[in-house]
Amino acid sequence: MSRSAIPTSTLALALALARVPAHAQRPAQGDDDSAALVDEGRAALKRRALDDAASALDQAIALNPRRVEAYVLRSAVYAERKQYQEGVRLMRRAQALAPADEDVVAALGSYLVLSGDTGAGVPLLEQVVAKDPARYGAELLLGHHWYAAGKWADAITAFEAYFAHRPRDLASEDRPHRIDLADAYLRDRQAHKALAVFRHVAGEGTPDLRVRFGVAWATAAIDCRSAQPLLRELEPVADAHPEAWLVEGQCALALDDTVTALERGQRYLHARPGAASGHALVGEVYASRGNLVEARHAFETARALDPRRRRWPVRLAAVLRRLGDASGALAVLETLGPPTSAAGDADWWIELGRILIASGDGQAVVARLTPIVAELPASTAIRAMLGAAQLATGQAEAAARTFLDAEAIARTRRTESRFADELATLAGARLAAGDAAVAEPMLARAAGLAESAAILRDLGIARLAIHRPGDALTTLDRAIALEPAPITLLLDARAFFLFTGDIAGARQRYDRAEATLDPRHPDAVELAAELAIDRAASELAGGDPARAVTAFERLERFEKLAKRVTAGSLAARRRAALAQAQHAAGLAVLRAGDGGKAVELLTSSLQAAPADTPDLATLCDLALAAVVSGDPPAALKALAAVKRQRCPFPAPADLQAVPILIAFTEALHPRQAGRSLEQLTALAGTHGLAAVLLGTAMRVVALEAADDAYRAGDLAKTRAFMATAKRANTRIGSDELTYDLTLLDLVDEARFDGKLDAAIATLERLAPKVPEALVTLGILYERKGLPEKALEAWRRARKAGSRFAMLAEWIAAKERIYGEPP
Amino acid sequence: MIRLAIAACVAWLAGALGSAAHASPITVGLFAPSAPFPSTAARVELANRLGEAIGKALNVTGSGRVYARAADFATAVKRGEITLALVDPAYLAGAGVDPMVIAASLAADRKTVRAWQFVARDGAKLAELAGKHVLVPSLGGREQDFVINVLLGGGVGREFFARIEVAPDTASAIAALGLGKADAAVVPVAGELPPGIHAVPVLPALPALPNPVLVVYGAMAEVALGAVRDAVTRFQGDATIVGFRDPDDERDARVVRDLASRFSPPVKRGPFAVPTVRLVVGDLLEGRRFAIERTPVTAFATAPTTR
């Protein structure tokens, strides 16, 4: 019991005893002589003539030892003289005479408490105030007792009863009791009441230090920003009262100023090295900075210094959980043990829930939290965890009930936002664990309670993860309306494309995401890389690999800002995505016949790929592109790189395509076609696409060889190669073959002139597919004496892209005569 | 001793001068009917001046001689009467001879080629000259091949014109046309045409043909060739042939060979067709699918609050 409490308690007790009413006298003794002595003693007490009172009352007891009233009044003299033990002895005699007399019980309980025997005295006082809360003396003693015991709620009840019933005479003694009441409020987290009482006391006169501290701390508990000037005012006395640094540090931490918080915490610890709360503050700072090892050390120290304080091991467990040591965290909590009543330490249960959730043990969460949830009627956090665990364990209906319960609490207490945050945090953990199906309903509830961009974004993410892009799109659009962050816009574009398949619409959304990228943002490079990867993925899925490549080029300016994107897993994924886009784009242009561009893209793909070993498929495709590009040396080099390797072509072309293409490419060297034809002939006997390729190659190479011979004027050899080309098992080049055979017949003019009309018909038929046919067609028309038609045929050949060297000259010769006049 | 030395020197000088004075004179022939000299006098004048210039360079008596007929020119060459001549390249190409060309002459525009044209009294386009009588400056034969193949690139058959006849030179051809002795003439482009005669529009234009070239018949010492080259480079001609380009044997000789190749009718053979290689590899790429792995969407979730 505080020193300030004793004088008032003694005085209150004395007053109370002195006011034992006359009607309390027992009727059987009314005429007793001792009655007069009792009256005399009471009067003397009121005059504070203690000796006279003692004398009269002792006589009264001597005359009538059964007069209980005389005992009670006599004890008041002991109370005034602080002779508590004597008071106890006297009242025990009185209790023997009247065990149920409330005055006797109250007086005995008071003396016992004042003499230090709270174990015997407090129950008696509790018994008294239970029957009559107006017994202010007993209330005051109980108030101070509970205050000293740290039972703030009980202390508050007793003090409030005291102030409700204490006589006006005692008002001058109020100050220390009000301060204790305010302090009890503060510690019971009723900061507003505490602040009101502290301010009331401060308004009664010059506020002493304790009151100034009280006002500052109560303000800090309400609003740290408002408290900061008050706390600074206390700095001059902080050396003598280092707790000022502790509170200032805690406030700084609440305001996310970890630098000041750590500095104040360390300053406090310098003054109070054994103060657990100082180590705890430092631990909180480290924990908020993510320096969990130091935080763990600090909380372990706090726990060792103040083993009775439950908060430190609970915070230690939280740090261990965040360190990934869920079993260690659980052991800390289990060693501490659950609180006697759940309401006594709700944080223990909340942390237990978090640890079990972190362990992925939903069943344990349900098993441990279900029994105590009713004991924490105001806790939405417990319900959020329980509901999440119920969802994760397939108890959807129970989860719905739990969430509804929590929502009702949140609405009643107007803490919807906090509950939504709790739900979103739990859901975020589920998302991180890949359990979007559990996260989605929680986020939907959170969004319903307190819509925020972050919650809506996570909800959109969950819906995308569970393949509901349409719902995700709606949600993300709402998130963007609140905050158009680049990542949200990226996800929105992804959802749009996945839902609609409309790449043009998705592009507009990706454009917007790009436009919001701020190069000064610390994560600008990473965001740019993510955006490029996602846009490229959509473009590729949308069938436009060239734009997929461009997606990376569009954001190169961000990549140039920081070289760090070249390292780490994101950089590797970015390079892999770029390589994939370039590979796909390379094949697209290769299919379109642009071998040169394909070589460029595929070479870039090989350079972009993060793997040390070049991708075989890309190498094989590069070899094809080099063949198509018409650069035989480069083609042969590329083909040599994949010789005898299994390319991603349909079997047996996977192994046979390369040797076929090597022979084919070698045939492109002047006068090499004949030799290549021999090599191709040696590969005969294959099947499938390889056979098709071989047939194609043989036909093309035979035609090349025939062309060589034709140019050399060796018609016999030309016909021999043509025969080989004709035998090749392929439909490829059939039109060219037909044309070339017609051309050969044309060489023998004498033999052919009789068939001019048939040849013209053949060439007219082939002309749309074989531009060279138009050249020869012109020759036939000329031979037939139709120079205008010859000119027309050659003009058509020129328009069809024929690169025949003589064509321009022939056209010029005809146009001089038959062309339009200049 | 000194007197002896002086005497020997005087004797040597006298011998040297005497040998020059008694060397054979040189005649430079001119057979270039297509060269558009305004008159025969101008043609003779140029030949003489060129002969004198070359003779001076060779320290001999030099003169020029104009030949109107190819046969006379060929005879003079055969007899060795001329060792140098300014000749129409078309004559050389058509005759199939390949003398050493040592310089190409320059026209007034200082080019070594000259455009050719059809001129006629009537006709808005070349096709309208079909079946007409055409004159061409003499080439010593093969004038029909010259018109049909060299100038018209074989664009028409030999039967296209009714007749292709020879005129002694360009001026004569135009004069004959003016007198109504022919329907058209094909001549080099040079100056204004007489009234009543116009150039027939042709698009594309007829090919430009090389101007007359200076050729050597027989052997000539390298020192003498050098002297001739130097002389013609400095030669100042007239309005038709203003001079000669710096000699380049190889380039100048190629002029005649290229022209010779065009006298024969072009043999028209169509090109061979070979399938494009794209057709060969296209099938190998079938069925290939590409996809970029997106960042897992959950990676973008807001990090749980640290508590």
Can you give me a brief rundown of this structure?
The complex is a heterodimer of chains A (822) and B (307). Chain A is mainly α.
Question: What does this protein structure show overall?
Answer:
The complex is a heterodimer of chains A (822) and B (307). Chain A is built from 46 helices and no strands. With 822 residues, chain A is mainly alpha-helical. Chain A is rod-shaped. The N and C termini of chain A lie far apart (125 Å). Mean pLDDT of chain A is 88; it is low at 22-31. Chain B has 307 residues and is an alpha/beta fold. Chain B contains 9 helices and 13 strands. Chain B has a 6-stranded mixed beta sheet with strand order 2-1-3-12-4-13, with helices on both faces. A 5-stranded mixed beta sheet of chain B has the order 8-7-9-6-10. In chain B, strands 5-11 form a two-stranded antiparallel sheet. In chain B, helix 5 (143-151) links the parallel strand 7 (133-137) and strand 8. The longest helix of chain B has 20 residues, at 2-21. Chain B is extended and about 110 Å long. Chain B starts with a helix and ends in a 26-residue tail after the last helix. The chains are: A mainly alpha (822), B alpha/beta (307). Chains A and B meet through helix 24, helix 26, helix 28, helix 30 and helix 33 of A and helix 9 of B.
- If you average the pLDDT of chain B, what whole number results? 85
Q: What structural class results from the helix and strand content of chain B?
A: alpha/beta
User: How is the biggest beta sheet of chain A arranged?
Assistant: none
**Strand arrangement in the largest pleated sheet of chain B:** 2-1-3-12-4-13
Oligomerization state of this entry? Answer: heterodimer
The arrangement of helices and strands of chain B along the chain is HEHEHEHEEEEHEHEEEEHEHH
Biggest interchain interface, per-side counts = A-B, 107 and 55 residues
* Count of extended strands of chain B: 13
Tally of separate helices of chain A: 46
Class from helix and strand fractions of chain A: mainly alpha
Work out the strand percent of chain A.
under 5%
Report low-confidence residues of chain A grouped into runs of 5 or more: 22-31
Measured distance between first and last alpha carbons of chain A? 125 Å
Uncertain regions spanning at least 5 consecutive residues of chain B:
1-22
Percent helix of chain B: 25-40%
Please state the overall shape of chain B, judged from the principal axes of the Cα atoms: extended
| Cα gyration radius of chain B (Å) | 32 Å
Total helices of chain B: the number is 9
Using only CA atoms, what is the Rg of chain A?
49 Å
Characterize the overall form of chain A.
rod-shaped
- Span between termini of chain B: 130 Å
